[in-house]
Design goal:
Layout lengths: L16 H20 L10 H8 L3 H13 L4 E3 L2 E3 L5 H23 L4 H19 L3 H16 L5 H13 L1 H7 L3 H19 L3 H24 L4
Antiparallel strand pairs: 1-2
């Protein structure tokens, strides 16, 4: 009887989890800073500064920043990375996509929101109220993003979620320009209140209409602001 040859167990395949996680962390942090308005159109993002901040090499930082470039959030220059300047045509196209996607997505999310998400929507709205009372545009931007992320988390289609996030984040230039204006802040707050009430009442038609109006108002206020700027 021939004795079988003992098999040598294979070493487990090791993956670069630490680097992958770090790259994702840096990506999410830089994107969050842009959402909050911490990074403005005149700011430069430098890979070595972020590497120093995270105590890492420049490689995971470069990977995160290149991903943001590929997704349209940043533009690479010879002196670092910057937020792209949107033309009026760019803004029209972004809002066209938002009008096509967000009202339907928000209406669909209405029926599946949980009590926990309802509470989170209320908290985000109250933050927006306090921001308007203080005429704090940066805080209102943050509350607006928080409110959006809550209802968007209830959207069942993950690809739709990601697409909406990308296009609303591309409109950061719009929020930065308009939400510093007290009259625009009041319009945005009224829109959030209408959305909140529609979500809480599980009224998908009301939410659809409110979301469309919210987007139309944002686009209109942007171009009013642009026309009011000095040439």
């Amino acid at each position: 009887m021939t004795r079988g040859v003992a098999k040598i167990p294979k070493a487990p395949v090791r993956t670069a989890l630490t680097q992958t996680t770090l790259t994702e962390t840096i990506y999410q942090e830089v994107r969050a800073r842009m959402q909050r308005g911490d990074v403005g159109p005149n700011d430069r993002i430098l890979d070595y500064e972020i590497a120093d901040e995270f105590g890492c090499t420049r490689m995971p930082v470069r990977q995160a920043l290149v991903r943001l470039v590929n997704e349209g959030f940043l533009v690479g220059t010879t002196r670092g990375f910057v937020i792209p300047r949107l033309t009026n045509n760019d803004v029209h196209e972004i809002f066209e996509v938002r009008r096509l996607l967000e009202p339907s997505a928000a209406a669909g999310a209405t029926a599946v929101l949980t009590d926990i998400q309802d509470a989170a929507l209320k908290r985000a709205y109250q933050k927006a109220v306090r921001s308007c009372e203080k005429q704090d545009g940066a805080a209102l931007m943050a509350a607006n993003v928080e409110f959006r992320d809550v209802w968007l988390s209830a959207v069942q289609n993950s690809r739709l979620q990601d697409t909406i996030r990308r296009f609303t984040d591309h409109a950061q230039q719009v929020r930065s320009l308009t939400l510093t204006d007290p009259s625009t802040q009041k319009i945005a707050l009224a829109g959030m209140r209408e959305l909140l009430e529609g979500f809480l009442e599980r009224d998908s038609k009301r939410v659809r209409a409110a979301m469309l109006e919210f987007i139309l108002n944002a686009e209109q206020r942007y171009f009013v602001s642009v026309e009011g700027q000095d040439p």
